[in-house]
Design goal:
The protein has helices at 7-16, 19-28, 52-70, 82-90, 101-111, 154-165, 182-190, 201-205, 209-213, 237-251, 254-263, 273-277, 280-292; strands at 42-46, 74-77, 96-99, 114-119, 125-130, 145-148, 175-178, 196-200, 215-220, 228-231, 268-270. Strand 1 (42-46), helix 3 and strand 2 form a beta-alpha-beta unit. The relative contact order is 0.17. It has 13 helices and eleven strands. The protein is 45% helix and 17% strand.
Length: 294
């Protein structure tokens, strides 16, 4: 069974295949990468903060650029949830990984991943409600249900810290339900199934305008470092630098500029090692949460 698409062929396939097959390939994107062979392609692990179909559509052009620069096949994988993605990162399943800063700290600590680049524009955690809802203060959400993309998301953790500053504690003053992705969480609010949703600024920027018009931002967290690209230590320094160059070159192309503008990423910049250290408390909190999960 086909597990992942070759990056250079994926766009052609998704443009021409029936929707059902495209959806199947998007689901298979979440499977674990196969065992490695001497001529195995590079595995690009994309952070699962979007649906599988969105990940496939979003990162194919970027994977194509790496493939062209290194003259080596690149396949895109993700995972069904943040915990699985973090576990696969720890096991070294991904040659290149795009992940959140607190999980980047774990990736470097546990598996020796080397930071390459990050998105220049910082992100924020947002707490959103329906535009026509009666909730105008965080305190009004006491006793309500809040949708989250995944409890391990750094933006969700940051929003929870802001709610705590307003005297609201998770599982005491409000309940949360994980919906897997930022889009799924937000749609619970749009469809009236949750009183509010925690969402990251960048995924919020990718929402259709019609969806954003139905939402109102109740809380904005302080700025946070955005997603980061890292490489596994099994890659040579030469390969790592070639990947870095390919990413920067892609960001300067029309397709890359559209990619950055659409996601609100602001381009790519180097990662400062000290900023990873700043995410250690979030990383340790996530480790504890993952151990508690079945």
């Amino acid at each position: 069974m086909l597990i992942a698409l070759r990056a250079s062929a994926a766009r052609r396939c998704s443009a021409s295949m029936p929707w059902g097959l495209a959806a199947l390939l998007a689901v298979l994107l979440l499977a674990a990468p196969p065992g490695r062979a001497a001529d195995a392609p590079l595995v690009f692990g994309a952070f699962p903060n979007m649906t599988a179909k969105q990940i496939l559509e979003t990162y194919q052009p970027l994977a194509d650029a790496i493939e062209k620069r290194l003259r080596r096949r690149v396949v895109i994988y993700s995972a069904r949830d943040f915990k699985t993605f973090a576990a696969r990162t720890r096991e070294g399943d991904y040659d290149i990984v795009l992940t959140a800063p607190h999980l980047a700290w774990l990736a470097r600590q546990d598996a020796g991943y080397r930071p390459l680049l990050k998105y220049a524009r910082q992100t924020q955690g947002l707490l959103v409600v329906r535009a026509d809802s009666p909730y105008h203060t965080p305190e009004a959400l006491r006793g309500r249900t809040i949708a989250t993309p995944d409890a391990l998301a750094v933006t969700a953790l940051a929003v929870q810290a802001e709610l705590a500053a307003h005297g609201l504690r998770r599982n005491f003053d409000y309940e949360t339900i994980d919906y897997g992705t930022h889009l799924n969480a937000v749609m619970q609010v749009v469809n009236g199934r949750a009183s509010a949703a925690m969402v990251g600024l960048h995924p919020y920027s990718l929402l259709p305008q019609d969806a954003r018009r139905q939402l109102r931002v109740l809380i904005e967290t302080p700025p946070l470092s955005s997603l980061m690209y890292l490489t596994h230590p099994r890659l040579t320094d030469r390969d790592a630098q070639a990947i870095r160059k390919a990413l920067l070159e892609f960001a300067a192309t029309p397709a890359g500029e559209a990619f950055m503008q659409r996601g609100g990423y602001g381009g790519l910049v180097a990662v400062d090692g000290s900023e990873l250290r700043a995410f250690r408390p979030y990383a340790l909190q996530v480790e504890q949460m993952m151990r508690a999960r079945p």
